[in-house]
Write a structure and sequence with these properties.
The chain is of the alpha/beta class. Helix content is 37%, strand content 15%. Bound molecules: flavin mononucleotide.
């Protein structure tokens, strides 16, 4: 049995968060890296497992989306575990699934530091990380070393992997770049997310345009069918063929117009997407506290509380205009924010910035409220 969400929340926000926010000279990325290194040591055995068991008692509402069985409806959003090293920790922290990455075909350093900024009074973050990651081959090796393969349940929860474009690759060559990542990572994922909505890789968001998205999605869906049809030689027993074609989700920006979203939805429906993830960070700077106005000038994508309303609006629009399942993400700071995304039609929710400000009490609270509402 895990600790109640309220106790976890108080323990994190009153005790741990003040220490974390001051640690490493207050550099958010440095403390992030340190926490990921700690979590990477968490496995399914030993004292770390007992620690994570404090939260693991928090189980949520079961659902099936795109043929995947989810034990709870709240997941970790992409970007927090970019290298996939902490893959075995997320279940223990109360998440029902985790989206790793974004991973690119080639290793790349991302943008110069500093590139991640806390806007504390606004419960927000601005980041311009730029897909820093060790590359698809290294991430596949990390997952293989932990025996995480599609459908084998070793992580205890479904695993999504987000793929993006290598910065140095021309937009015209994006399809083959995404395909390289896809082939390497699909054996380790229960679903793949196509990230065409990060604001921090020049030109990336243009891949949301109808023709470009059709080419990209068409190629990935056809590769998924091919890989499902043939037994994958590198993982004979556990390859993607075992569970049918890989579900492919498309992650969209909150800054699209309704007309642009209509085009994305039509392309997703016509080219075999399994669903949508809405939304990525925003380029807008609305809803910030006065004390955060200086930081607001930093370039990059804004996440957290200022995104809550827009993400809900976009999720509502998407759900009204497609039959595909939707993962809602953006500005989930309280359990009620997650319920609002469910009420807007989302089948699952994800969070990132809320976890920085709320810690493991937040997914636990989402799970508790989700179960409570199911019963009422
Ligand atoms: C520091 C940081 C890095 C991120 N990196 C990625 C990424 O690599 N891929 C991606 O799809 N989204 C990335 N995101 C966006 C989140 O997955 C999420 O869509 C967005 O932050 C809105 O959710 P939130 O308000 O719960 O944070 C990142 C967000 C932050 C704050």
């Amino acid at each position: 049995m895990g600790l109640p969400a309220g106790l976890l929340d108080a323990g994190y926000t009153r005790l741990l968060r003040p220490v974390l926010f001051r640690a490493c000279g207050g550099d958010p990325e440095a403390i992030h890296e340190l926490m990921i290194r700690v979590l990477a040591g968490f496995g399914s055995a030993g004292p770390a497992a007992a620690l994570t068991g404090l939260v693991a008692g928090s189980r949520g509402r079961r659902t099936t989306v795109a043929g995947i069985d989810f034990g709870s409806r709240v997941g970790l959003a992409a970007g927090l575990d970019k290298d996939a090293t902490a893959v075995l920790a997320w279940r223990g922290l109360g998440f029902g699934f985790a989206e790793l990455g974004t991973v690119t075909a080639r290793a790349q350093p991302g943008n110069p530091r500093p590139r991640m900024f806390r806007l504390r009074d606004s419960k927000a973050v601005i980041n311009r990380m730029g897909f820093n990651n060790p590359g698809a081959e290294a991430v596949a090796a990390t997952l293989a070393a932990r025996n995480v393969f599609r459908g084998n349940g070793v992580a205890g929860i479904p695993i999504g992997i987000s793929i993006g474009k290598t910065k140095l690759v021309e937009l015209a060559d994006a399809v083959s770049d995404y395909l390289s990542s896809y082939r390497l990572l699909a054996p380790h994922a229960d679903y793949v997310a196509v990230n065409v909505s990060s604001p921090n890789t020049p030109g990336l968001r243009s891949l949301q345009d109808g023709g470009a998205l059709a080419d990209l999605l068409g190629a990935l869906v056809s590769e998924a069918a091919t890989m499902a049809a043939e037994s994958h030689p590198s993982v004979p027993e556990r390859g993607p063929g075992r569970c049918g074609p890989m579900p492919i989700f498309v992650k969209v920006a909150p800054d699209l117009t309704w007309a642009q979203l209509d085009e994305v939805l039509a392309t997703c429906a016509d080219h075999g997407a399994a669903g949508l993830i809405a939304t990525n960070t925003t380029l807008a700077r609305d809803g910030l506290a006065a004390s955060d106005q200086t930081r607001a000038a930093e370039a990059g994508g804004l996440s957290g509380a200022p995104l809550t309303r827009r993400a809900r609006e976009v999720v509502g629009y998407v759900c009204e205009h497609t039959d595909l399942p939707v993962m809602g993400v953006g500005g989930v700071i309280t359990a009620a924010d997650a319920m609002a995304l469910f009420d807007a039609g989302a089948s699952l929710v994800q969070l990132y910035t809320g976890f920085i400000y709320g810690g493991p009490g937040l997914p636990a609270a989402v799970n508790a409220l989700d179960v409570e509402r199911q019963g009422s």
